[in-house]
Amino acid sequence: MSETQELDQLRQQIDSLDQQIQQLINQRARCAQQVAEVKQKYAQPGESVVFYRPEREAQVLRKVMERNEGPLPDEGMARLFREVMSQCLALEEPLQVAYLGPEGTFTQQAAVKHFGHAVQCRGQVSIADVFREVESGAAHYGVVPVENSTEGVVTHTHDSFLESGLKICGEVTLRIHHHLLNKNTDAEITRIYSHAQSLGQCRLWLDQNYPNVERVAVSSNAEAARRASQEDGTAAIAGEAAAELYNLNVVRANIEDRPDNTTRFLIIGSQETQASGEDKSSILVSSRNQPGALYQVLEPFHKAGISLTRIETRPARTGAWSYVFFIDFEGHVNDEKIAPVLNELRQVALDFKWLGSYPKAVL
């Protein structure tokens, strides 16, 4: 058998498999439509029907990765299913998702990574605007950055939770690669635009390569790219999406100081998420201004053997030198050993607020 004949046989086999895959995807889509019909059928009059279930999607993606036999990697297979699920959900209800914009930001990339490309993403000017969009019902969900592995906490997100009644219903992590971009690679660079967090994540590289060039913090990396596309002698630090959007050249790629530079984003909404089997919870605790206050907050977790994944401190708005603790820990609020801990915290804390329980990031 010749090379042409062998290739022809393989291509015929691929065509046949493609047809079967397409038929099965459409069968799945019809099942999704039937799920929507059943939910609407049994909904109470005036009740808002919930179509997106974060815990269910997390369980499906985990199963996809567990049963994957290759040669595709587990995460690659899960990303394919992520898009299938996104398209199927759009048949039930097209989701409106607000994110910290404008178009081309890492937050938009995080939104697409979590929800898939079938959602309708709407960029907002600030983190506070993302919260307002969801609170008003103009968007079903919002996506906001909460911490970076290099620069730490995003304070505006934490501060928004102090007054918002929204819940955390998911999380997504995104590897952040920063590129130095401009419209003319041969031009001398006299000014570099970027978001303050990105400038911090590339500080050492900038000190070594552009020590005397002015660094200007702007509202987002996408805004930095927009300015660099219009101003001579300027450059931007941003990602690939912004480079493509504003037709900029990559002068230097991957200039972040740490190769494992990662940002964690939160999915915010009005619904409470049920347990998925692998969950995290977030709470806000205001302690009394007295010796051992922090110990009283942390001791219940230690006694119950619950692992804390993050603790941050922010100034409270009740007076000078008062503080609020944001705590993330493993487990769901409905888990048997979690409820007693939260009850104990309510007794010792000056103020207590449950921010949500949600599936751990799958992808």
TrEMBL record:
It is found in: Cytoplasm. GO terms for molecular function: prephenate dehydratase activity. InterPro entries: ACT-like_dom_sf, ACT_dom, Chor_mutase/pphenate_deHydtase, Chorismate_II_sf, CM_dom_sf, CM_II_prokaryot, G/b/e-P-prot_chorismate_mutase, Preph_deHydtase. It catalyses: prephenate + H(+) = 3-phenylpyruvate + CO2 + H2O; chorismate = prephenate. Keywords: Amino-acid biosynthesis, Aromatic amino acid biosynthesis, Coiled coil, Cytoplasm, Isomerase, Lyase, Multifunctional enzyme, Phenylalanine biosynthesis. PROSITE patterns: ACT, CHORISMATE_MUT_2, PREPHENATE_DEHYDR_1, PREPHENATE_DEHYDR_2, PREPHENATE_DEHYDR_3. Residues 282-359 form the ACT domain. Residues 96-270 form the Prephenate dehydratase domain. Residues 7-41 form a coiled coil. Its EC number is 4.2.1.51, 5.4.99.5. The keyword Isomerase applies. It holds the Pfam family ACT. Pathway: Metabolic intermediate biosynthesis; prephenate biosynthesis; prephenate from chorismate: step 1/1; Amino-acid biosynthesis; L-phenylalanine biosynthesis; phenylpyruvate from prephenate: step 1/1. Residues 1-96 form the Chorismate mutase domain. Catalyzes the Claisen rearrangement of chorismate to prephenate and the decarboxylation/dehydration of prephenate to phenylpyruvate. This is Bifunctional chorismate mutase/prephenate dehydratase. It comes from Thalassolituus marinus.
